[in-house]
Amino acid sequence: MTPIALVLSLVFVLIPIILSKTFKLGLEKDTTVAVVRSIIQLFIVGYILTFVFDSESILYILLMVAIMIVAATLNARKKGVGIKGITWKIALTLLFIELITQGILLGFGITPRTAQYIIPISGMMIGNSMVLSILFLNRFSAELKAHQDQTELILSLGGTPKQAIHSQLIAAIKASMIPTIESQKTIGLVQLPGMMSGQIIAGASPIQAVQFQLLVLFLLLTTAAVTSIMLGFLAYPTLFNKRMQMVKMKVG
Q1: Tens digits of per-residue pLDDT, 2-47?
Q2: Of 83, 105, 192, 238, which has the fewest beta carbons less than 10 angstroms from its beta carbon?
Q3: Which pLDDT band, with edges at 50, 70 and 90, does 110 fall under?
Q4: How many CB atoms sit inside 10 A of residue 227's CB?
Q5: How many whole angstroms from its chain centre is CA 110?
Q6: How far apart are CA 36 and CA 238, in angstroms?
Q7: CA gap 172, 161 in Å, rounded
Q8: What mean pLDDT do residues 73-78 have?
Q9: Under a CB-based contact definition with an 8 Å cutoff, are residues 83 and 249 in contact?
Q10: How far apart are CA 233 and CA 140, in angstroms?
């Protein structure tokens, strides 16, 4: 792609901005900021990755992964501002996702122990886990707000915090996992994964490209389940005090 072609592709940015302004959605600023940030970040990361891939230093690999986790945590925590300690809870969840996925991949020799594999896969898993965290926290906050009276009633009747929050917690976990599960049902029929298509275009064997794409899909399923459940069970206890009363919090 030439620089001129890239500039012309900005028409795809103008369309949502115009629609947002026309229908008074108020998303023009966020869209513009997202586009500017993505351009700057991708070009910077492109040069950094070239350096890291050439160096093959474990220190640089760990540093890149750490930066991903920190950035993802700071972005996701905005949806859980009313939950005490949500920042470290998200960070711990993302770190666990990284450890379990890379531990299995490298431990069983599924993928090579090189930066070219570790960093892209880590980026996909951490990024997906971040989105799942946001989906979970957004739905969980809405569920808490909608069923606050029900929760307090169960507590007043002698129910435990876990019993009082169970239905809201499960609803939020399921809601955050559904997009991942549903998207995989139509993979290859409706969606043609970019990674698989890119590998085929680059000259890789279609079978090899499919196998690698399937690996990513399997990883995403684990990421979806572990992220939603782990973050949920880390988050809900802090909604109650020692007297098993629901803490007043800003929800939504």
Answers
A1: 888 888 999 999 999 999 999 999 999 999 999 999 999 899 988 9
A2: 192
A3: very high
A4: 29
A5: 23
A6: 37
A7: 16
A8: 91
A9: yes
A10: 12
Contact between residue 47 and residue 36 where contact means Cβ atoms under 8 Å apart:
no
Residue 114: both structure tokens together: 């090189």
24 backbone dihedrals φ, ψ, rounded to 5°: 55, 45
**Pair 126, 98: CB distance under 8 Å:** yes
For residues 45 and 43, what is the distance between their CA atoms, to the nearest angstrom?
A: 6
Q: For residue 117, give the nearest of 194, 47, 64, 183 by alpha carbon.
A: 64
- The CA–CA distances, whole Å, from 226 to 57, 99, 177, 218, 219 equal 29, 12, 10, 13, 11
The pTM (predicted TM-score) of the whole model is 0.83
Q: What DSSP string runs through the chain?
A: --HHHHHHTTHHHHHHHHHHHHTT---HHHHHHHHHHHHHHHHHHHHHHHHHHHH--HHHHHHHHHHHHHHHHHHHGGGGTTSTTHHHHHHHHHHHHHHHHHHHHHHTTSS-SSHHHHHHHHHHHHHHHHHHHHHHHHHHHHHHHHTHHHHHHHHHTT--HHHHHHHHHHHHHHHHHHHHHHHHHTBTTTB--HHHHHHHHTT--HHHHHHHHHHHHHHHHHHHHHHHHHHHHHHGGGGB-TTS-BPP----
Q: How confident is the model at residue 251 (pLDDT cuts 50, 70, 90)?
A: very low
